[in-house]
Design goal:
With 211 residues, the protein is of the alpha/beta class. The protein is elongated, with a radius of gyration of 19 Å. The strands form three sheets. A four-stranded mixed sheet has the order 2-8-7-6. Strands 1-4 form a two-stranded parallel ribbon. A two-stranded antiparallel sheet has the order 3-5. The chain has six helices and eight strands. It has helices at 21-40, 62-74, 95-107, 124-134, 180-186, 194-210, and strands spanning 46-49, 81-83, 89-90, 113-116, 122-123, 139-142, 149-152, 158-162. Helix content is 38%, strand content 13%.
């Protein structure tokens, strides 16, 4: 919804600038909710949720692509993970924290709009490091730009490499949520940090791949 952000962090007053059809559709849904609430007095809140990930995330999303690929690598299938822009930063949280936020919104006497986020932004590269740590792997990053890659320190084999055609034509470089309103009014707080989240995803993938 925020897309090409002009300010960071992003809160309920930050202008929307979606960079994908998905983002455009979410902005449409947001303003439909606001309009029905204003026009008919519906108790309809709009949750503006930053990225939330779990072991159930689809394998086409970058976080799960990383945890599945590293799990296979850790089990001996030494095929590098192919990624795009490693410098892209996301505010990744855990869905359980967001569902609690949804419930808290609906307990309020007056409906409103709320950003839910962790207030921590993490590059894709660092998420890969955290997932590797959870699997007792150590990644060493070499090169830069499209030549950047990571080798597994134990085996010396390439575990991650950058592929230029995986760069998005309309990339969203930085997302960082300001959930001050949800924190102060609803008592919402992100309980699961990014390192814990990476481990929560990588370890089950490792066990599933082993079995």
């Amino acid at each position: 919804m925020f897309g090409r952000v002009r300010t960071a962090p992003q809160n309920e007053d930050t202008a929307f600038y979606p960079r994908s059809p998905y983002g455009v559709a979410k902005v449409y849904g947001h303003f439909n909710t606001v309009n029905y609430r204003d026009s008919f007095g519906l108790h309809a809140s709009s949750g503006i949720f930053f990225n939330h990930e779990s072991p159930l995330r689809g394998s086409n999303f970058v976080t799960r692509k990383v945890t599945l690929g590293l799990s296979r690598f850790a089990r001996g299938e030494h095929i590098p993970i192919e990624l795009g822009n490693l410098n892209v930063c996301r505010d990744w949280g855990f869905p359980g924290d967001y569902v609690e936020g949804m419930w808290r919104m609906l307990q309020e006497e007056k409906a409103d709009d709320y950003v839910l986020a962790t207030r921590v932004t993490t590059p894709v590269r660092d998420f890969a490091n955290y997932a590797a740590e959870a699997l007792d792997m150590g990644l060493e990053w070499l090169g830069s730009g499209i030549t950047e890659h990571a080798i597994d320190r134990e085996t010396g084999k390439v575990a991650v490499k950058v592929i230029s055609n995986l760069f998005r034509p309309a990339e969203v470089d930085l997302l960082l949520g300001d959930a001050t309103k949800a924190s102060s009014r609803l008592g919402c707080k992100a309980k699961v940090g990014i390192r814990e989240l990476a481990a929560m995803m990588a370890q089950p993938d490792y066990e599933d791949w082993r079995s």
